[in-house]
């Protein structure tokens, strides 16, 4: 069982996934900081100085903080769009690195069989 686990854990996909999660988490923090510290204040200025995080409605003893919900939606959209742009840029670089398609190499045996087939058709 331990050997199976080691094989599973050392597969390239698992390690790639772990690295992706760590980098994604760090990238998420950067984008969240961008949203919280730069974009949200600018949007607040554009819409008259409203701070989303302070929007709330008292409902009995509870307080419904719908502003935080709106802020989380804005955060998600900006993070998703940022990741989209990042992946799109990576894919452009990846396409440039890929070699152009080369004609498949025909095996000599296959070529010989084709020649025999063609000779038999002609006779």
From TrEMBL:
It is a multi-pass membrane protein. Its main location: membrane. The chain crosses the membrane at residues 12-31, 63-87. It comes from Bacillus yapensis. It is found in: Cell membrane. Keywords: Cell membrane, Ion channel, Ion transport, Membrane, Transmembrane, Transmembrane helix, Transport. This is Large-conductance mechanosensitive channel. HAMAP family: MscL. The keyword rRNA-binding does not apply. GO terms for cellular component: plasma membrane. Belongs to the MscL family. The gene is mscL. Channel that opens in response to stretch forces in the membrane lipid bilayer. May participate in the regulation of osmotic pressure changes within the cell. Homopentamer. GO terms for molecular function: mechanosensitive monoatomic ion channel activity. PROSITE patterns: MSCL (PS01327). Pfam families: MscL (PF01741).
